[in-house]
Design a protein that fits this description.
Distance between the termini: 40 Å
Oligomer: single chain
CATH topology of the largest domain: Aspartate Aminotransferase, domain 2
Strand order of the largest sheet: 1-7-6-5-4-2-3
CATH architecture of the largest domain: 3-Layer(aba) Sandwich
Helix content: 25-40%
Largest sheet: 7 strands, mixed
Radius of gyration: 26 Å
CATH class of the largest domain: Alpha Beta
Structural class: alpha/beta
Bound molecules: pyridoxal-5'-phosphate
């Protein structure tokens, strides 16, 4: 009998536990030829396990194939466009990886004596210098491990600065278009959060801000370009207003990829800001490496920078671990060093003109997508888009289709979804950020997919509402998954 052909590798790869069969080994070692200390004697019988229940018994090739097959279910930046707005998922150039793997860098140890770690210290010093130049600020710390961590570091420095002047003040003002991490940061630093509304153009309402700033205001935290992808054109006026009332201006610089080489926050009055190396400077997001959220400050905040700080004296680099006024350590050792190396490689490989071009291309690509679909999707703000563009699902909701449905249908077209339902000030938001690394062909494919989905929404709404149709699992119960996550495997008997 001829069997029906089925692909050998299926989308039903079992769990590693289900691949287990008794007695299988991953390795086989020769008999020990040295005396063995009995662990039960050495550690005490009560502390030693003789058996790990349900531990999977598998061979090496079982393990390799299992995880390699799982990895083929992933969508990755090396596979195609990853249009997550706000996240800036740009390609990670291989030169970064090459440099990070050089022996002297990959094997450097944070406990190495400083005289034997001059290269590593210089890498940090040089990166700080370039980031200070790019942002127009006076000094930089590389320690924070993420954007949100940078925010906390920055607000703690503002608190230390105001405290040194005798009054830490009470509130931090935050526009309603802010990233969710901003209010969380202010609250963690002990401040009350006061929301400032946006105007009809998607910019901060200056009159509302003017009415809100008083002598209890510690700072305004402002994302620029903001989360609807629009440049806050009043920012210099905003800085002046805050300074005239003794408050500080914090800029969330996660969207700095729209400004690098063309505008410097230090020049328009920002006191402190963070950058996301895993966004603007092309280092991997998670998976391939942890993040980094350097913080840049103006001169008056430098005494409060976290420690250690790398300083250069002649040709010698030293990491200082003591300084009066510092907020102290925010991260073990020197921060995520491997990520810092990659960001420096990216900066040097591009050079000044390369970085300027990357910025232009990021803005051009976002506007190319905007033009390509704006006749089919509702655009809540007419203001010029920078590096990302935000639509709403207003037209598609007439067919009962929401932003999340369109995003899931994109999966069937082979694209990672855009950012869904964020920012919150746009109801049913579709937030799209192509980044500069995409070619026109790739952008055209994406536009084509989005246009096609808009047509499907009219002709066959059920097709879109039931998407994705091409994946291993389709719709999961998202409420249940969030409220009652089951993240641990249990053997069938005890379930
Ligand atoms: C990504 C982002 C953050 C947070 O950065 P993490 O590295 O994820 O902590 C903060 N603000 C804005 C505007 C962002 O886009």
């Amino acid at each position: 009998m001829i069997k029906k052909v089925r692909p050998h590798q299926t989308q039903n790869e079992p769990l590693i536990f289900e691949r287990s069969s008794p007695g299988k080994f991953g390795y086989q070692l020769p008999e020990l030829d040295v005396p063995v200390v009995d662990p039960q004697t050495a550690l005490g019988a009560a502390n030693v396990r003789t058996e790990i229940p349900h531990f999977p018994e598998v061979s090496e090739v079982d393990v390799i194939r299992h995880y390699t097959r799982l990895s083929t279910w992933n969508y990755a930046i090396d596979l195609g466009l990853y249009p997550l707005g706000s996240c800036t998922m740009k390609y990670n150039p291989r030169v970064n990886e090459f440099v990070a793997r050089l022996d002297g860098i990959a094997w450097a140890h944070p406990y190495q004596p400083q005289q034997l770690a001059q290269g590593a210290l210089r890498i940090q010093h040089d990166l700080e210098m370039y980031l200070a130049e790019i942002t127009g600020m006076d000094a930089v710390t590389l320690q924070p491990a993420a954007g949100a961590h940078g925010e906390l570091t920055g607000i703690l420095m503002i608190r230390a600065y105001l405290e040194a002047q005798g009054d830490a003040r009470k509130t931090v003002l935050i526009p309603d278009s802010a990233h969710g991490t901003n209010p969380a940061t202010a609250a963690m630093a002990g401040y009350e959060v006061k929301e400032i509304p946006s105007n009809a153009r998607g910019l901060i309402d200056f009159a509302a801000l003017e009415a809100a700033v008083d002598d209890s205001t510690a700072a305004l935290m402002m994302t620029n370009p903001n989360t609807v992808g629009i440049f806050e054109e009043d920012i210099a006026k905003v800085a002046e207003l805050l300074h005239s009332r003794g408050a500080q201006l914090y800029m969330d610089g996660a969207n700095m990829n729209a400004l690098v080489g063309w505008a410097r926050p230090g020049d328009f009055g920002v006191d402190v800001m963070h950058l996301n190396l895993h966004k603007t400077f092309s280092t991997p997001h998670g998976g391939g490496g942890p993040g980094a959220g350097p913080v840049a400050v103006k001169e008056h905040l430098t005494p409060h920078l976290p420690l250690p700080r790398v300083v250069k004296d002649g040709e010698t680099y030293t990491a200082i671990t003591q300084a009066a006024g510092s907020i102290g350590r925010v991260r073990a050792f020197y921060g995520n060093f491997g990520v810092l190396v990659r960001a420096l490689a990216y900066t040097l490989a591009h050079g000044g003109n390369g970085l300027k071009n990357a910025t232009l291309d990021a803005v051009l690509n976002a506007n190319y997508i905007r033009k390509g679909i704006e006749d089919l999707y509702h655009l809540p703000y007419e203001s010029p888009a920078m590096h990302e563009v935000v639509f709403s699902d207003q037209r598609q909701t007439k067919q009962g289709i929401k932003t999340g449905d369109i995003a899931k249908r994109l999966i069937d077209y082979g694209f990672h979804p855009y950012t869904v339902s964020f920012p919150l000030i746009v109801h049913g938001a579709l937030m799209i950020e192509p980044t500069e690394t995409e070619s026109r062909q790739e952008l055209d494919l994406f536009i084509d997919a989005m246009r096609s989905i808009a047509a499907e929404a009219e002709a066959d709404p059920e097709l879109v509402r039931g998407a994705p149709h091409s994946t291993r699992t389709s719709r999961v119960n998202e409420t249940q998954a969030a409220r009652n996550p089951i993240v641990k495997w249990e053997p069938p008997a005890s379930q």
